[in-house]
Amino acid sequence: MEYLDRGLKYLHGGEPITSLRKLKSTLKPEKLVFEWKAEENGSIPCPPKRLNGCGCGLLELRCLFKEKNWVEKLVKEAEELAEVHNLMIVNLNPGEQCPFCREINETDGGNEGVRKAASRDHSNDNYLYSPKASKIQDGYLKHFQWHWGRGDPVIVSDVLEGTTGLSWEPMVMWRAFRQIKNTNHDLRLEVNALDCLDWCELDVNIHQFFKGYLEGRFDSSSWPQILKLKDWPPSTLFEKCLPRHNFEFITALPFKEYTHPCNGFLNVSVKLPKDTKKPDMGPKTYIAYGVAQELGRGDSVTKLHCDMSDAVNILVHTAEVIITPQQLAKIEEMKKAHRAQDHRELCRLVKDDHKFANEIVDKKGSAGTTQKFANSPVPPESFELKELDTESKHDFSSEDKVINHVAGENGICKRNKGVEGKRKRGKLATKNSVIDLMGEDSNGSNEEKHKCISIGDEDESKSVYVDVIEDYSELAKEDIVFKEVECEDGGALWDIFRRQDVPKLQEYLKKHFQEFRHIHCSPLQGVVHPIHDQTFYLTLKHKKKLKEEYGIEPWTFVQKLGDAVFIPAGCPHQVRNLKSCIKVALDFVSPENVGECIRLTEEFRELPPNHRANEDKLEVKKMSLYGISQAVQDLKKLTGVVQMKKIE
Asked: pLDDT class for 405, splitting at 50, 70, 90?
């Protein structure tokens, strides 16, 4: 997907730069002219060097399993044991209320152990199971399994209370990391960070990054600069680089039957043989800045995505950055410019669609507009476009769309140092200026310069105009809405969607994708897969619109310090940091969700070869076979012990 770097002023509602330098794309996949074909003697030659092969070797096919027909024998043994022991699949009734939660409510006279996360009508899943770590006792595993088997997230609070108390302060982690690295003589003072405003990478001094984590960081326009540390320390080296913190994290994990990365007997991912190459399941750290206010642009977010496996995420540290009233006023002023830019570009887009529709009507008649406007933000029936911003002369027509950056494998890009608006160490090198495109000029006048889209007759056009202004007022009230979920020890706002709502969620994103921005704050130009692209974050406005149009809403809750969030495989989710946060996450594969993991694996295979989701490799089918093998062996041993006791 191609994105334009329109300059630094454009990021905050200004006009784009007029000349864009063309960069060579390094991410267009080379066409594969080589095909795997067997020779007459049955041998399969390796690809040539230009396709990353050796060009001279032969492909040797090996069976992963030592015995012939091992899978067939395993399935037969498993079916026989299931029949002998009368094992059966338990299907939970979606309308059934959790019997364990009902017992808790009757005993405690309240909702202790559950947390309200949604307000769906005629639904029994608005509350999530949320026990305290100190109260998890024998028998609680069945309670967890009841909710987990339905595909519900689970939140376990205060998991850090049972640990040794090792500090997760960022500078403590840095010193521990530096001490280990010094012994290997491989220490980097600069780290790779991601700027959440333009979604581009930059190198920043590690000490300066952590200083901004604790105190805040603002660009030259007084806009909060939100940075995310990218892969530090690398997840494959977390145990080696931070051994004490790794032990602390493992100690804090609840329901270790599922989550322990080595000894979890219900964790299918640990069933692989020791001599087998294992996928990277973590732990991995997520370190990022955050502010309580929803900025709308540049928020500290993990965009909407869906993991291939189950995951548990623990919030281990938070730091609140105080924003002064003067800074808040400046932010609100710039948000007006952002909203005006959104509105202006949407009108411009509809204007282009209108021209295209007229061309189709001239050639094919009115029926020709149907397909073009299938995903248009404005209905095609009887529309006309009133006057747009007369001062804005730049129109992003097809001839102006010069390729500047291409989204990389991670959906992000490197900054181009040759483009106007060069940054150094994360600081913006532009003048401190904000253009208020809503019409508030330097003289303080507030003249409305942007006309809105008119649909149908005059009354209808008035209603559309009111809708646009109401959207602005709704966004201006974000802080009031946010106070409902704000809490003193809260660190991150989570939205997790139900699996059954995914089709409607995808339909909504395909319909409204032009209202979202990604790299360089450029509007999205298209969608490959609404979830797996990881290019969407649904703000309060979009979540409200989603419920109005499709009747669905996510589970929404605040992750507090010490909360462990369990995310089932196949549940799309997004996260926004309310404070600077350090989270540590671990992937696992539960027996309940093996089928969902396999389904996702097949879904990822249908994506284009260079899609970012293809990086996520999980050999879940191989895990499942070894997991079944282990279960069969354990059941045989258990059966043998019982029979021996009966004989005695």
From this structure: very low
Q: What is the 3-state secondary structure (H, E, C) of 200-242?
A: EEEEEEHHHHHHHHHHCCECCCCCECCEEECCCCCHHHHHHHC
pLDDT value, residue 396: 36
Report d(CA 222, CA 332) in Å as an integer.
11
What is the bridge-based pairing of β-strands 453-455 and 383-385? antiparallel
Cβ-in-10-Å burial (0-12, 13-18, 19+) of 84 comes to exposed
Polymer length in residues for the chain: 648
Dist. CA 123–CA 501, nearest whole Å: 13
pTM: predicted TM-score of the whole model, two decimal places: 0.78
Contacts 24+ apart (CB under 8 A), 481-484: 481/540, 482/292, 482/293, 482/294
- Tell me which residue has tokens 């395993």: 74
- Band the pLDDT of 471: cuts 50, 70, 90: very low
Q: Per the structure block, which two tokens stand in for 55?
A: 């060009």
Distance CA 402, CA 382 (A): 33
Nearest Cα neighbor of 123 from 571, 485, 501 is 501
Euclidean distance between CA atoms 150 and 10, whole angstroms: 45
Tell me how far apart the alpha carbons of residues 562 and 579 are, in angstroms, rounded to a whole number.
14
The bridge status of strand 200-205 relative to strand 413-414 is parallel
pLDDT tens digits for range 80-138: 888 887 776 666 665 577 777 765 544 444 456 889 999 998 888 899 999 999 888 77
Residue type at position 248 = E
- For residue 58, the tally of other CB atoms under 10 A from its CB is 12
Q: Quick one: which of 639, 600, 638, 635 has its CA closest to 621?
A: 600
Report the C-alpha gap between 597 and 600 in whole angstroms. Answer: 5
Distance CA 394, CA 388 (A): 12
Q: Is the dihedral of CA 229, 233, 239, 244 positive or negative?
A: negative
- Three-class SS state of 575: strand
Q: What is the pLDDT of residues 586-608, one digit of tens each?
A: 999 999 999 999 999 989 988 88
**CB distance 299 to 541 below 8 Å:** no
Which range among 17-21, 48-52, 520-524, 614-618 has the greatest average pLDDT? 520-524
* 3-class secondary structure, 114: strand
d(CA 271, CA 281): 13
Q: What is the distance, to the nearest Å, from the Cα of residue 269 to the centroid of all Cα atoms in its chain?
A: 22
Q: Is 139 buried (19+), middle (13-18) or exposed (0-12) by CB count in 10 A?
A: exposed
Two tokens at 579? 């404070």
- Token pair 């109401």 in the structure block, residue: 470
Task: Confirm if 216 and 289 have CB atoms less than 8 A apart.
Answer: yes
- The count of other CB atoms within 10 Å of the CB of residue 235 is 17
Q: Distance (Å, rounded) from C-alpha 412 to C-alpha 230?
A: 11
Strand runs labelled E in 369-504? 383-385, 405-406, 413-414, 423-424, 427-428, 453-455, 490-496
Q: Specify the DSSP class assigned to residue 522.
A: P
Q: For residue 59, which of 38, 73, 78 has the smallest C-alpha distance? A: 38
Decide: 246 and 585 in contact? Cβ < 8 Å: no
Type of residue numbered 153: P
pLDDT tens column, 542-553: 999 999 999 999
What would the DSSP string read from start to end of 270-281?
GGS-TTSPPP--
Strands in 472-620 per DSSP E: 490-496, 555-560, 564-567, 573-577, 580-588
- CA 111/CA 331 separation, integer angstroms: 39
Other CB atoms closer than 10 Å to residue 472's CB: what's the count? 16
What mean pLDDT comes out for the span 436-441?
34
